[in-house]
Amino acid sequence: MPIIAANFKTNHTRSSTAKYVSLVNNYLKTNSTSDVYIFPTATSLDYFETVANLHIGAQNAYATQNGSFTGEIGTEQLDEFYIKTILIGHSERRHILGETQEMIAQKYQYFKALGYRIIYCVGEPLEIKESGLDATLQYMQTQFEGIDLSYENLVVAYEPVWAIGTGVTATNDDIVNVHQALKKQCSKPLLYGGSVKLGNVESICQLDGVDGVLIGTASWVAEDFIKIIENTKEL
């Protein structure tokens, strides 16, 4: 069964997140499925009593326990809620918020040393994609600099930047070609992300080399996310 992950980005409140997690958790109590991940906003993180295969993670954190880092959260804040799962390398942090590969690798090494489950994101912008598969793979190779791909608690997510939040999903050939190439480099579970929605998630999860999906916009309504889990649980 595929891994299904929801990234709230800058959406939902503490109250709506609690309702969302409760709905998904209640569904999972009576429906056998593989790992499900929910990444709320930092202000919505909390301790949730969940079934074993529902994981609450942080979208981001600084590589520190605590300290003088205005606007950041560290492991002291995550530990309060027993959170041991984190997204690292998302394209919005790379391209909008200016995280360099050096910063990302430092963060990766820090949370790896603490045993966190890491969903590590890679993906190419449109101008690279238009240059062909070789250019795409070369570009993503730079996103693996300083990243230990043998880490036992790693999941990799391929998210083409040009497909995130645009409504444009990569073609099946695009997805398969990149996933097959990445599989030769890394034996960890490999997710696809980029305008995944209820109408295409089942077909995407059945593609060669795809072990699940990381979903943005289409996951923000709990009932829709539950339907996505339902439609993929038999795969």
TrEMBL record:
One of its GO terms (molecular function) is triose-phosphate isomerase activity. Homodimer. Keywords: Cytoplasm, Gluconeogenesis, Glycolysis, Isomerase. This is Triosephosphate isomerase. Pathway: Carbohydrate degradation; glycolysis; D-glyceraldehyde 3-phosphate from glycerone phosphate: step 1/1; Carbohydrate biosynthesis; gluconeogenesis. It catalyses: D-glyceraldehyde 3-phosphate = dihydroxyacetone phosphate. GO terms for cellular component: cytosol. One of its GO terms (biological process) is glycerol catabolic process. It is found in: Cytoplasm. Its EC number is 5.3.1.1. It holds the Pfam family TIM. PROSITE patterns: TIM_1 (PS00171), TIM_2 (PS51440). InterPro entries: Aldolase_TIM, TIM_sf, TrioseP_Isoase_bac/euk, Triosephosphate_isomerase, Triosephosphate_isomerase_AS. Substrate binds at N7, F8, K9, G165, S195. It comes from the Bacteria. It is an enzyme of class 5 (isomerase). CDD domains: TIM. The keyword rRNA processing does not apply. The active site is at H90, E159.
